[in-house]
């Protein structure tokens, strides 16, 4: 077997070195991710530029720190106190995202684990502040949407200028001690039954008023009709009816004399 030419050895060594260099320098940033450069022989993390999705070449002595920059969520259960000092458990979810252009500043000031270092304390502080304004009954029933909005506003204020944006807060569940929960549910049920009973009373009263109005209307109509029916009108109407009956081929009418009111008396017909 022939020996390799002397020039081939350094060529192969150079090629291997280049392959290793390229593999160390090539970085691919995936969808929904951003990268910041850690310059080992410079000032550390470069806060001036955030790298977007795609293929990038960096110096082999530098490192590319890749983090998700699209919207993401974190869920947690927090033990907080209501306005009267009762301990309740709140299950919630926070939707947030890092500011893409300030990703380097976020990591430099708060570290790569910025969620634990920055977001969690802010959310817990906001939840304690907001929940502490309400009674257990308000937390359990009617104030859920208001609480969510207030927590969002509190977190937004706490994270102002921290390069992290909270998009939405969802309070999924509020857990109360069983005795308190049962008492609230009984009270809510009684209030509902009371509202239903009051509705039935109002409905019955309206129906009674309607019947009284209809009865009064009929009475007024009869009164007006009675006042308009004089003896002369009744007599004329009776004569008209008698004439029509006498003209019928199927009837025999015998009229003799008249009644006390002057109306004809019909004795027989067919």
From TrEMBL:
Residues 24-188 form the Band domain. The chain crosses the membrane at residues 7-27. Keywords: Membrane, Transmembrane, Transmembrane helix. Gene3D superfamilies: Band 7 domain. It holds the Pfam family Band_7. It is found in: Membrane. The keyword Transmembrane applies. InterPro entries: Band_7, Band_7/SPFH_dom_sf, Prohibitin. It comes from the Bacteria. The keyword Nucleus does not apply. It is a single-pass membrane protein. This is Prohibitin family protein. The lineage of its organism: Bacteria, Pseudomonadati, Bacteroidota, Flavobacteriia, Flavobacteriales.
């Amino acid at each position: 077997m022939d020996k390799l030419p002397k020039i081939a050895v350094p060529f192969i060594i150079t090629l291997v070195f280049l392959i290793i260099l390229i593999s160390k320098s090539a970085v691919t940033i995936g969808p929904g991710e951003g990268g910041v450069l850690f310059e080992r022989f410079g000032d550390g993390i470069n806060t001036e530029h955030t790298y977007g999705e795609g293929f990038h070449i960096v110096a082999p002595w530098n490192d590319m720190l890749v983090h998700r920059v699209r919207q993401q969520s974190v869920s947690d259960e927090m033990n907080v106190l209501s306005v009267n000092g009762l301990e309740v458990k709140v299950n919630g979810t926070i939707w947030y995202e890092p500011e893409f252009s300030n990703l380097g500043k976020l990591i430099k000031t708060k570290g790569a684990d910025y969620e634990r270092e920055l977001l969690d304390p802010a959310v817990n502080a906001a939840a304690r502040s907001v929940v502490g304004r309400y009674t257990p009954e308000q937390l359990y029933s009617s104030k859920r949407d208001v609480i969510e909005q207030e927590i969002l506003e509190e977190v937004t204020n706490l994270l102002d200028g921290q390069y992290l944006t909270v998009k939405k807060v969802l309070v999924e569940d509020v857990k109360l001690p069983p005795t308190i929960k049962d008492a609230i549910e009984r009270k809510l049920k009684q209030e509902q039954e009371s509202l239903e009973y009051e509705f039935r009373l109002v409905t019955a009263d309206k129906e009674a008023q309607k019947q009284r109005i209809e009865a009064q209307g009929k009475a007024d109509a009869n009164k007006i009709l009675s006042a308009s029916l004089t003896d002369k009108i009744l007599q004329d109407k009776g004569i008209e009816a008698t004439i029509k009956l006498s003209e019928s081929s199927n009837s025999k009418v015998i009229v003799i004399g008249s009644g006390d009111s002057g109306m004809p008396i019909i004795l027989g017909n067919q």
